Amino acid sequence: MIPELITGAAASAALSGLTAWAVFGPRSRFFGPLVWRGDAAGPPRVALTFDDGPHPESTPRVLDLLARHGARATFFAIGQNAERWPGVVRRIVEEGHTVGNHSWSHAAWAGFRMTAYWEGEIRRTSRALEEVAGTATAWFRPPFAVKQWHMHRAVRRTGHTMITFTRRGMDGLRTTPEKIVARLAGARAGDILALHDGAVPWNPHDNGPTLEALPRLLEALHERGLAVAPMEELIGRAPYVRARAEARKELSRETA
Ligand SMILES: [Zn+2]
Fold this sequence. Notes:
Low-confidence stretches: none
CATH topology: TIM Barrel
Shape: globular
Distance between the termini: 78 Å
Strand content: 5-15%
CATH class: Alpha Beta
Mean pLDDT: 90
Order of helices and strands: HEHEHHEHEHEEHEHEHH
Bound molecules: zinc ion
Number of helices: 10
Number of strands: 8
């Protein structure tokens, strides 16, 4: 009786551990394919990504810091935020960065939603970004890094690649610049690093620690001989449905 109980408890603990890994693990391909790091070959480089923007104050400051260091990053935007602050999205694209899809609403408990919900979230965001950036998106980052079968199916149906990360700053939670730098500065060639430039629409967030950490992180990576490169160079996949060059040409025609 007791050994059976113990075995049962151990089995259920192992099972819930496995489930947690499958759902939350940034490297988990349990429900479908995803990219969590880039190619380590070639010149040593990493990719920087920013989630939950655009944000009218912190995103422009992130862009200023990146420009000062000649670094190009990927911004996984929330559709609602992109619709609200299209000028910030436009600036991201104009300065040579990439925009990716981070769902329309970044809703809590969305991990339980079905395929149609995820298709809607992804397509609506892609359309909002297309209106501003001139092209539909092809990269999707799951909110909270939570993945499930229906989401994977929607990602496939909408022609997206699911992209997580190798290391994260955990700066979506309350933290300090020192901790953020410590979590990311040990990066290795090919790593995809995750930070936050914005906040989910239903939960305001202080990006101050990220803004303080970013120049220190960029300097630390530089000192270790790691360049910050556009993610498409590391993963060998295009970020947009149409070529970026074509989209930017149109964009400059519109703004001319
Ligand atoms: Zn997010």
